[in-house]
Design goal:
Blueprint lengths: L10 E3 L3 H12 L14 H11 L5 H21 L3 E6 L5 H9 L5 E6 L2 H14 L8 E3 L16 E6 L9 H15 L4 E7 L4 H7 L6 H17 L8 E8 L4 E8 L3 E5 L2 E5 L4 E8 L3 H10 L2 E8 L5 E8 L8 E8 L5 E9 L3 H10 L29 H11 L7 E2 L5 E2 L12
Parallel strand pairs: 1-4, 2-3, 2-5, 3-4, 5-6
Antiparallel strand pairs: 6-13, 7-8, 8-11, 9-10, 12-13, 14-15, 16-17
């Protein structure tokens, strides 16, 4: 395709207004109010983020670009010849141009971004700069289900490019699921080139998310502005303030919007109350330890092939190659929760999986896996398999659920000679009639 040919429209799988409203109402109805960070990136939000990347306090983009400038030739060798390069959260594709300049006869470039207009402009700019390169833009939330465009000719390999440490926005359990999803996309022998923000002094991290010019604050508040504009909300932006704090124990920076007064916000016929000082959690960004990340990647069949860092060890670009596919296993963390109506239930968070393709399919067909990678409340799951959304639970695991819920098991009596009487502790107690 030459630059003079009309540009085809992007494949469009981005969330519609109904999904946006459902996600907002769901997040604001929780005990800890929250909003999905993917909705930051409308047209205005994408522009604000580009400004953030150029701020003096925001070391991430500057440091990653310096690493790319120095080592991009080595990265291109890792990706290989005749490769399809797939970029998640492509934005303006500024870093991608460095990589495309050094790739050996790339087969195609597939930028994926949730901001449609922003994506089309970037894709057209790349077509003009690389007229021999097939560019197939996809407008989608890359954590959801969407289709990849068909590539017209045979390719040697696939590689996913995920710069900017955006992977840090995933919770640890969801991050492993995302790695498994990438493994499905690239296939055995494929690669994953990812940026990681590394652990460092809290003051450096907090300054990056609390810039003196207030651009990050406007970026955060723009989420409320978008709700007002697109969903008919009546958020008073002057009644909320941006806050970013580093949680050293969790190893992540958290962004919140703080209510400056007691107030009620109306949205879609609902009145949402806010106490003074109450926050809306909007984003987290985990800072990584390279050894821990290598371990997590290995659980999903990836091997770390190359790591490039800056002199201060602030940031790393890592190339992972998929060695084994389909060897993932299922591991769960189970938490007891109390819903707003007072009913006690459980949320099971999936850590890893034995077959990522099957697990994602179950998420669509059986409500096995929700978009935010956790299960809905399961009321009294030990009573019946049919009441348990996780059909694959073993009997032992269901007993673990009972134990973690705090249901005490029968304690055996002990006779004077030290022998146990009655059923052993691991037996399931009889049902009460």
């Amino acid at each position: 395709m030459t630059s003079s040919e009309p540009a085809p429209r992007a494949l469009h799988f981005a969330p519609d207004e109904r999904a946006f409203l459902d996600d907002v109402l769901d997040g604001l109805s929780r005990i800890r109010k929250e909003l999905p960070c993917k909705y930051f990136y409308d047209e205005r939000g994408s522009q604000l983020f580009e400004r953030i990347c150029d701020l003096p306090e925001y070391y991430l983009t500057r440091t990653e670009l310096a690493i790319m400038d120095r080592y991009v030739a080595e990265m291109a060798v890792c990706v290989g010849r005749n490769a399809v390069l797939i970029e998640y959260g492509s934005g303006t594709s500024r870093k991608t141009r460095l990589l495309l300049d050094h790739l050996d006869d790339p087969a195609a470039y597939v930028p994926i971004d949730i901001s449609y207009d922003h994506l089309l402009r970037a894709a057209q700019s790349l077509r003009e700069a690389y007229p021999q390169l097939a560019v197939h833009p996809v407008c989608a939330d890359y954590t959801s289900d969407f289709e990849f465009p068909a590539i017209a000719h045979a390719v040697d390999t696939k590689a996913v490019y995920f710069p900017g440490s955006t992977i840090g926005n995933f919770e640890p359990a969801a991050m492993k699921l995302f790695l498994a999803h990438v493994a499905d996309v690239v296939g055995p022998g494929g690669g994953f080139l990812v940026g990681l923000d590394l652990q460092k002094e809290a003051a450096v991290i907090e300054a990056a998310y609390n810039d003196a010019a207030g651009v990050t604050a406007r970026f955060n508040l723009n989420l409320l502005h978008r709700i007002n504009e697109e969903l008919g909300g009546n958020f008073d932006l002057s009644a909320f303030a941006h806050r970013a704090i580093y949680d050293a124990d969790a190893g992540r920076i958290e962004m919140h919007l703080v209510s400056l007064k007691e107030q009620r916000v109306r949205l879609n016929g609902s009145a949402i109350p806010f106490r003074e000082g109450e926050t809306i959690f909007t984003e987290s960004s985990y800072k990584y330890d390279l050894r821990a990340f290598e371990h997590d990647a290995g659980d999903c069949g990836f091997r770390v092939e190359k790591v490039w860092t800056d002199e201060r060890k602030y940031f790393a670009v890592v190339y992972l190659r998929l060695i084994e596919a389909g060897l993932f296993f299922l591991d769960l963390d189970v938490f007891e929760i109390v819903r707003g109506d007072g009913e006690v239930g459980f949320v099971a968070v999936v850590h890893q999986q034995h077959d990522s393709e099957t697990l994602f399919r179950r998420g669509r067909n059986r409500t096995y896996l929700l978009r935010s990678f956790y299960l809905p409340v399961i009321s009294r799951p030990w009573r019946s398999r049919r009441q348990c959304a996780l059909r694959e639970f073993s009997f032992r695991r269901r007993k673990t659920l009972r134990h973690e819920r705090g249901c005490s098991q029968r304690t055996p009596k002990v006779s004077r000679n030290g022998r146990k009487q009655g059923p052993p502790t691991e037996q399931r107690p009889k049902r009460r009639r």
